[in-house]
């Protein structure tokens, strides 16, 4: 029996690969384009008909270049599988694969990533990535004589360029207008999105050789009294302002904090620095502000924790999330999740109450003014049902799966709200810990790192580019609590603070200088910005 061999000219094979990427793997891109600009037959809509051709000829030009002997047998299968994996997230979770998203993926631990490995996700990757990759590897590629091969390939590339230029010339205004108003949409095109993200990430890594800069060398405390200051800074995860009971949301999701009445200063309008932990956490501690934030520069200079520590404040970071993203590298820190306490932990993740038992120990073992950072897992998805214990499963029915797109909106929101109930009791217990130490000038300062989408307009999770991110991902809850001794000694007008919390807008930009105010730091320092210090704004004259 004669063996059937599948053979094809290299140029034809590359054109088929480009066609597969164009018509199949970039479905999410076309769906997004048409959702933003539906085709109605109007004169301004005809450029939409050229978009698939534009994508095809761009990809064809690239793949014709990549069709080098041997090398293409590695590159093309890899691109197929990775594109299929990203395509699933784009289609079902409305994820944009940007440089920030790549960095987030690279920093995701096994416990987090394993929860994304659902059967539909794996089946999608196999069906649209692995199977086409295997078929590609089975094809025997026929090459012409080398000079003819080069000439033919150059001809195809030039043909593609001519078509691309022709489309651009005729529909330039339409394309320019669409891209200008929707800058993030091209981040849905595979494989260019993750190749571009990879190139940018390599640039960041190369820039990692930048020299380290110390800041705030003139920072010092200027305490008006001898009482010990103890600030607990709780950094939340994925909790959004829209479902925060103290903001007026119904049903009430923060009953314990609400019961404390005026003890709690609740800030109604607060925005995050980013829409993903890998960006927001370093940004909020950097002092650069969202508009001026540079991730590479931030990683090569002191943050607020470094400045406070050098000024004599004891700084401790306890982590129950996916790490401090470099912020706590130079201060005392501990990965609490790694303790794997069976009372709180399962499959590499722990309930936030695991952090409570460490607070008294920190107070006992430290003697100076202290900032204790508790990095919580908060409302992290998609396994929202794992963020609370059974007694906080009060809103039903719930979405007890990581395939959240299969749940009804009611199930999904109920599950997310149960997680906020758990955060409410956690913060209440942190405050109770502080109340049990009346000798301290204590403060509890809570803010989330970013928000979360729960299916609004088909968007789930977080990480959407900030320019187009829905406010569900950028508006966050923020509260403050102060002990009686703090209120008595710090000469602050708390009615002013409450009024500002209700009427003014704040952001992660305020954290840096506000910590200065909380810890009685001398304001005459190069890194302090009085206008961003929430506390000093309400100091009595």
From TrEMBL:
InterPro entries linked: Alkaline_phosphatase_core_sf, EptA-like_N, PEA_transf_C, PEA_transferase, Sulfatase_N
Keywords carried by this UniProt record: Cell inner membrane, Cell membrane, Membrane, Transferase, Transmembrane, Transmembrane helix
Residue stretches spanning the membrane: 12-31, 46-67, 74-98, 118-138, 150-172
Membrane topology of this protein: Multi-pass membrane protein
Any matching Pfam family: Sulfatase
Recorded GO CC terms: plasma membrane
GO biological process: lipopolysaccharide core region biosynthetic process
GO terms for MF: phosphotransferase activity, phosphate group as acceptor
Domain Phosphoethanolamine transferase N-terminal positions: 55-203
Location of this chain's protein in the cell: Cell inner membrane
Sulfatase N-terminal domain span: 231-520
Protein name in UniProt: Sulfatase
Species, as recorded: Gallibacterium genomosp. 2
